[in-house]
Amino acid sequence: MIFEGEHLFAGQLGHFFVILSFVASIVAAVSFFKASNPGNIHWLKAGRIAFGVQVLSVIIIFSVVFYICSNHYYEYMYAYKHASKELEYKYLLACIWEGQEGSFLLWSIWHSILGAIFIIYHRKKQSIWEAPVMTVVALAQFFLFTMILGIYFFDIRIGNSLFTLTRNEINGPIFSEPNYLNFIRDGLGLNVLLRNYWMVIHPPVLFLGLASTIIPFAFAYAGIRTKQFGDWVKPALPWALFSACVLGVGIMMGGKWAYESLSFGGYWAWDPVENASLVPWLILIAGLHTMVIYKATGHSLRASYLFMILSFVFVLYSTFLTRTGILGDTSVHAFTEAGNAMNFLIGLFVAAFTLPSLFLLFRNFKKIPAFHTEETTSSREFWMFIGSIVFFLTAIFIIAKTSVPVYNKITGSKIAPPEDVEFSYNKVVIMVAIIVGLLTAVSQYFKYKSTTGKYFFKKIAFPTILAALLIAILSVFYPMEYYKHGIGFLGAIYVALFAALYAAIANSWYIISILKGKMKHAGASVAHAGFALMLAGMLISSSNKNVISSSRVNGITLPASKDPMTKQTDDPQENLTLIRDVPAGMAKYDVTYLKDSSGHEKGRKFYKLLFREKDKTSKGKNDFVLEPDVYLMKDNNMSSNPDTKSYLSKDIFTYISFALNDKTEDTSSFREVILKNEKDTAFYKNGYFILKNVVKNPSNGKYNFTASDAVLAADILLVSKDSMRYKAMPAIQVVGDDVAQLDDTLYAQNMYFRFIGITEDQKIRIGVKESDRLIDFVTVKAYIFPYINMVWLGLVIMAIGLLMSMIKRAGLSIGLSATLLLLLSSGIFYMFLLAN
Length: 836
What we know:
Strand content: 15-25%
Helix content: 40-55%
Shape: globular
Number of strands: 23
Structural class: alpha+beta
């Protein structure tokens, strides 16, 4: 049968290049492996050519997928599942990595780019590291292309193709028709939770960070393969620093996305997928410090091997957690069950890198050089190593708790998550923050090998006194107010805050007093100061976060919705229901729900909320408007996106916790009321109203007519049964031969007024409609996040510090270093502190 309107060439082209990439990755892996052996350098050229073919192929594959999605070719299953005509152009790009196959493609693109850069850089140096490192990268590409291969081996499909036809995947009567495409009006589109600009930039950056961990891992393998057991550390350090920077930024981009776009009121919820990306970063940071120790003293080489291997191993394990469906309903991020064949491939991918790498490490463990003398407690390397162990153990704790669903599935046990998941992590991590903060503060003041007590205490005295004074001042004038888990946990918060501030001050003072302001060597201190500032921001903003919305203001309490991220239901009393055009108090503001408007996407509504400061002396200077939005779906389900007013010292964070999804037709109609004169009264269902005056060409907050206009308005005062007073002002306007009626709506009473006209005997005709529909209202929840910008500023400073260290270790030219640092720092600063 010939099907009408199908564009089969695009899919055939894309599938051809998938197969070509798959074959090229095998050839590249074998060639680079052969070239790793002495005397086989001629294999290197074949490996480079094969890898180049694979790089070109993966670019073409991505281009074809984007072409299919952007042109809405719904004959392809991937386009039908992830694209739709209502999506903005940027989301047509983002929908590529929404699905599992597209995310594997994105991962392989970053491996291709990193591998190409690595080859170009090391080819000029004729480096011994090119062949063994690229063996690992090419082998990883082989597994990634297997995931999207989509070919059948007997009855088993190997991988899921991006170019599978919809009619081959869905059983339905329309697919037996030659013109079945005429019946497919639109695709399913991007998940409403993902329709945010962070979806365009967060996954690519995060995947770059995750993908980049393969280079330090490959260097560790290369050190064993070449028997150059310690020489790999120097060339691997810039790559490890790059990976730590990008992965850290990628993780916190997810936090910023959650803060801006999810309604749980924060940026971190200890979600399993959040944890799965954090764990490799923690181990990578541990490995960075042991690598620096080895470079300076020769110690900790074995630990460096272990940490660099495990950082990539846990990236693969996070892939297993998120893509096999094993997390079930414990994470909103996880992909659904992929099928037994795909799960087997993912498991094979994890095992193929984990088992051989650990086997090689332990087999050669005794051959790896190590000092048998212990470091002294007065040496920098001792405390750096302690810090590395703390990071490593924290990672193990987090991944162990995250893996409970895996343990349950394997053993058949039914270990339930704790009642308060966040606190179960926080009570441990707060202790880690204390230890890490203190170590970060003091460790750089120790010298390598040994440090005299006199030197150490002399240098550390000033930052210690300053930090103690600062925490004392804060405890008096800006105390922490997190009493939820008792005085003991509050005390731990104070100690952790002291440690974080101590670390920030001590590292800043180190740059001034020890380095004498020489920023070229200050990368580590800048990164430490940024990390400490970020910790302090997290502690302050979380401890003093304050809900300012309350149902007690007007006594309207509605059932609250369940948050899709935390699975917890809001406290109804922490939500304020706003009736349209009726102000209600919220902290120092009166908040008015002005109107709503439809967004570009189907079912999306924006709600305009006016925040007006109660202090009359401000004269409206501090007033602002927020427009949180929701996706209204079936059965009154909704997905809420917050809006935030940002100040230097705080954010006012507001989201819709309940919105009316009433589509019933208004069947009520206007009834005419004749008012004899001014001051005449008429009754309505919930009270009475008085005609105060008839105004010619009114100019007030509602209308702005001039003397040249021909307008009459009825100034009406309503008094409800509960003695509340409201105003309405319908008007009638004459323009040439036309008469326009300007109705007025009183949402608080669900009433509509119309100025019909004036009778011959000068009586006023007023139309009154009392609607049968529900009152127009919306329920909101609002927080004040104090000093939240410390979190983002700390992250930016930490990233800049890591970039500084990376550039210094890479030995780049001054011009290139300055350009890279300026561009990357500006981009990160803009993303986290300016863009919204």
